[in-house]
Design brief:
- It is a single chain.
- This protein is α/β, with parallel strands linked by helices.
- It has 3 domains: 1-29; 31-110 and 218-329, 3-Layer(aba) Sandwich (D-Maltodextrin-Binding Protein, domain 2); 115-208, 3-Layer(aba) Sandwich (D-Maltodextrin-Binding Protein, domain 2), CATH 3.40.190.
- Helices cover 49% and strands 17% of the residues.
- The protein has 17 helices and 10 strands.
- The protein has helices at residues 3-6, 10-29, 45-52, 55-58, 73-79, 89-97, 141-152, 169-177, 190-196, 221-226, 228-247, 249-260, 265-277, 287-296, 301-311, 315-322, 325-329; strands at 32-37, 62-67, 84-87, 102-111, 115-118, 132-135, 162-165, 183-186, 200-204, 211-220.
- The strands form 2 sheets. A 5-stranded mixed β-sheet has the order 2-1-3-10-4, with helices on both faces. Strands 7-6-8-5-9 form a 5-stranded mixed β-sheet, with helices on both faces.
- α14 crosses α15 (301-311).
- The chain is globular.
């Protein structure tokens, strides 16, 4: 075929190539954040939904979630292997106290949650005296919850209630089953597993309204200073994900199933209900939650105030509010939690 015969169709070919390559080039140029998380529970749902529903991409950001078991997330954040760590507040506070220049930019939960699962013989909180309680690891969210709860009840760990470290939530459940302990702290779906095994919930900590910083996004201050636009996009994506979860439960449960690999509809529904019950519509990082954690660690007064001022970074939340994102995702007004 002569070259001149191709000339009439070349503009169409070129247009087709441009339409094909433009999205690929844009995707390649889109900045990326690797976000680590240390659990495969419903508490990570906003991160997963932000990825699967392309809410981060809406704000020009590619986010890759990565599961880092146990305490692997903290050194990964320090080394720069991940840029964001989606975590409970206590480990992040302890990182900061140890000298890491880490800050929180959003917190999905503002109160301490989880159920205390006990043997049938325990009827009330006072019955915990003289019993053995299992938590995961020193400094873990369950360790913090146990110490704070016992302090609020006028009990001392090791004196009124023995506290042992099992190494993991699954090991704590196994200790409950074999009779080594009489109580554990459980989140969904582990609480349902305990109920099915014949144990019962003694108390839902969320009903006590104890201030807390839960399901927080954390990053190193130098990274934020270098990439403020990426952090703004990440916070915006998490915020939109919460609205999506509230508005589209069926799609959210499908995403939950994909990441947790739980296919039982009753367990998925229970996990969805439990983890959305205390989810804040606007995930501000609050001073009160961090202050409660510090108080439990023995840090108070001026030292606590200075810590909170340096640790809680709400500028990106303020930015997306000023830009009108909250009004856009909640046109009828911000719903009550």
């Amino acid at each position: 075929m002569k070259f001149y015969r191709l000339l009439p169709i070349m503009p169409g070919i070129l247009l087709g190539l441009l339409l094909y390559w433009a999205p690929l080039c844009f995707a390649q140029e889109r900045p990326t954040i690797i976000a680590g998380h240390g659990t495969l529970s419903g508490s990570i749902l906003p991160l997963w939904v932000g990825v699967e529903a392309k809410l981060f991409e809406k704000h020009g950001l590619q986010v890759k979630p990565i599961y880092l078991p146990r305490a692997a997330g903290r050194p990964a954040l320090l080394s720069g292997e991940i840029q964001v760590y989606f975590s409970a507040g206590p480990p992040l506070v302890q990182m900061r106290l140890a000298g890491a220049d880490v800050v929180v930019t959003s917190c999905v939960v503002h109160r301490l949650t989880s159920k205390i699962m006990v043997t049938p013989a325990i009827q009330k909180v006072a019955d915990l005296r003289g019993k053995v309680l299992a938590v995961a690891n020193p400094g873990s969210a369950s360790d913090f919850a146990a110490k704070l709860f016992l302090a609020r009840q006028g009990m001392k760990p090791g004196q009124d209630v023995s506290v042992i470290y099992s190494g993991s939530t699954s090991a704590a459940f196994a200790a409950l089953v074999n009779g080594r302990v009489q109580a554990i702290f459980a989140t969904s779906p582990n609480d349902l597993q305990a109920i099915q095994a014949g144990f019962k919930p003694l108390l839902e900590l969320g009903d006590l309204s104890i201030p807390y910083a839960g399901n927080c996004s954390a990053a190193m201050r130098p990274y934020i200073a270098k990439q403020p636009a990426r952090m703004r996009s990440f916070v915006a994506g998490i915020t939109e994900a919460i609205a999506y979860i509230r508005r589209r439960p069926a799609e959210s449960k499908t995403i939950l199933q994909k990441y947790t690999r739980v296919s039982d509809p009753s367990i998925l529904q229970h996990t969805y209900d439990s983890d959305t019950r205390y989810m804040e519509p606007v995930p501000r990082p609050t001073p009160e939650g961090t202050t409660a954690i510090l108080d439990n660690l023995g840090v108070s007064g001026r030292a606590a105030e200075q810590f909170v001022a340096e640790f809680v970074d709400d500028r990106f939340m303020k930015q997306i509010i000023d830009e009108g994102l909250i009004k856009q995702i909640y046109p009828g007004g911000v719903p009550a939690r």
